[in-house]
Amino acid sequence: MSIPAGIKTPGVYTDVNINTLRTGLPANEQKVLFVTLDVLSGQFIPVDVYDTAGADSKFGKNSQAGRMIKAAVKTNRLVNAQAIALAVDGVRTQKALHTESGDAVLAEDGALIEP
User: What is the superkingdom listed in this entry's lineage (predicted)?
Assistant: First the structure.
């Protein structure tokens, strides 16, 4: 019986590709989208948020997005999160002034007026 030519034998050096090694961390392929009523921020497209300070700088001090990312990081420190402000008709925004009928008070340019 002959030995096939493709079999590795002792004393023969082989190549190892170290770039294909797996790391010990699982891949985080899931994203979380926080939808908030922080409409005064003007963030109407999703933006990446990594911590409370970053979310508060984008959405305003003590924002809903900041509180959400704080809770998410507490649950899973590797969370991949984005946040967006959503203005919904008929829903009172968090910080805007409102008339007696419940409508938000707007400036001449259409921006919400914050107290």
Answer: Bacteria
